[in-house]
Amino acid sequence: MTAGRLTVVDHPLVADKVARIRDASTAPDAFRRLIHELSLLAAYEALRDLPTVPTKVATPLAVADAQVLLDPAPAIVGVLRAGLSMIEAVLALLPEAMVGHIGLYRDHDTLRPVEYLVKLPTEIERREVLVVDPMLATGGSVVHAIDVLKERGARHIRLLSLFAAPEGVAAVHERHPEVPITLAVLDDGLNDAGYILPGIGDAGDRLYGTR
Known about the structure:
alpha/beta, eight-stranded mixed sheet, 15 strands, 30% strand
C-alpha cells in the first residue's frame, strides 16, 4: 500500500515474518534472524527510487546501456539501540554504503528522546540517507534523529521502520513532511505506556535478551 509519502510493504513473505516476530514465544536468536530478513525485504522497497546515472558497460559480447548509483554512496543511519539490528541487512543490499549512528533512549516518564551519541559519515549533505529503526511508536526518537541529520546538513532523507503506529507516522509527517516512510506493517495505535499495539513489545529487549 502506498499513500502519499507512506508505503506499507504488501508481500506474503513480509506477512509471514511479521507473524513470527509478533509471537511472544520467539527466542532472541530467531527474533534477530527474522528482523534481519524482514529488514532486507522492506529495505528493497524503501530504496526503490534511489537516484542513478546512465553509463555504459562492456559485456563479453557488446556494450550495454546501464544505470549506476550516484556518488557518494548512500548512508545508513541506525537509531540506537534497536536500529543496529537493521543495519547489517541493509548493508547486504548496499555494501558500499557508509554507516552512521544516533544514540537515543526514551525517558519512560516523559516519553521524550534523550540523545547520547551522534556519529555520522562525512559528506552527509551529499548522500542519500536511510534512517533505520524497527519501531515507530510515538515518533519522538525518529523525529529527533531526522532533526539531528538536518542540522548537520543532510538533505535527502528517507525512513525505514518495520512496525509503526499511526501516531508515529503522523508525528514524522507533521515535522518532516517531505521524508518518505516505508513500513512492514502499520498497527492500530499506542497503549498508555507508548507501546505499539498489537506490536511486538520492546524490540531492543527482545533482540538482545535484556529487560
